[in-house]
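Q: How would the structure tokens look for this protein?
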Amino acid sequence: PASVLQDGVVPAAKGKTGSHDFKVLCAGKPVAQGAEAGGWVNVSAGRQGVFAGVRHFWQNFPKGIEVSSRGVSIQLVPPRAAPFQFYAGQAKTHEVFFDFSGDAAAAQQRWRAFEGWPLLFADPAWIAATEALGPFAPRDAKAFPAYENQVEDVYSLYSQSTLASQKAGGALGLMNFGDKGGDGGYNNLETALGEGMMIQFFRSGDRRFLDYADAAIRHFSDIDVDHSQKYAGGIYVHGPHAQPNAPEADFGVNGHSWYVGVRDFYFFTGERRLRDQARWVGEYYLKRPWPMLPQR
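A: Here is the predicted structure in token form.
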């Protein structure tokens, strides 16, 4: 068998960033290496073949793909990688692509479209007029220059700090990709970051906001929302993603539980697992209402 293994971040010398190296193995022995594997493989002969790939492959290490006489194996948690520990209540969703056309060139084009996520998007003015997402105004730099400049500043701040977290090696991998460092560990979409990115996307149609929300919200719904039977729907606030101990009773009831952005992402994508999760979150917090503070 031949395989590619993306197995973490290679530590960097002081003052430099790490590298995201992968290895190509043949019969279990390394024969080549590189950085940031593309995450796809094509095996074809004549009109028969299979093209397979995993979106955000290297970012969600460890990952592997193996080709053998038995077929193509997509290894979401490869057996050759170092042991990876999930914790109770966590989940992980992957997007996997298969093409059985046997046309390698056409399959490659379809893979690029899948990886880049082509959009069919309505005019922001029409979306705003529906009020389905609440009241908001389409982007208008002439009418609201100060606000639109602030939006750009905030986006730049978060995108740069997220990239810095990734280059440092922490904000990557199965458990961390999509989040950014900060607040005692990781940000966990504080404060309502997913909702902010989705609203700016709906206001403008600018896919920069959607691309940021895509990785962030998928991470949040998998890792930062509890999936266990006992605590389903509880939301973990900013901090470490590793949860070796059972959560405290009524955890997440603290005024820091942001979920509206996930709802908006569901409205756009139609991913039913997010709709189902919204029900868990609602039921969890209906049973544990956040106490109202006295008003002066």
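The helical segments are 104-116, 124-130, 145-167, 193-204, 207-224, 260-269, 272-287.

The two ends are 71 Å apart (CA to CA).

Upvote if useful.
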